[in-house]
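Fold this sequence, please.
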Amino acid sequence: MIKHIVMWNLKGDTPEDKANVARSLKAAFEGLVGKVPGLLHMEVGVDVSGADYACDVVLYSEFDSHESLAAYAHHADHLRVRQELGDVRIARHQVDYHATPVAVRAVA
């Protein structure tokens, strides 16, 4: 399994503008669920911390393989979402990694 995490800082003249953009981005990406082969899980979160160094939105997704993630990048519905959102970001950060299970011990 490969995990794909993207974080954005968004444009907006007011906090309300940014919130509207964040809601649109969240809805658009969540609309991809069930449409992209190999996409196992997707979450889109909007920051609630208010920290000045925090990103505004995070996309967390899981794919069954690196090939599925690569196909997602060129999937027609994903490209449509990217086009619909246009240039709403100030910054974008991304991490893709292979999931490696870690044993967790219960704390007594």
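The first strand starts at residue 2 and ends at 10. Helices lie at 15-30, 66-74, 76-85.
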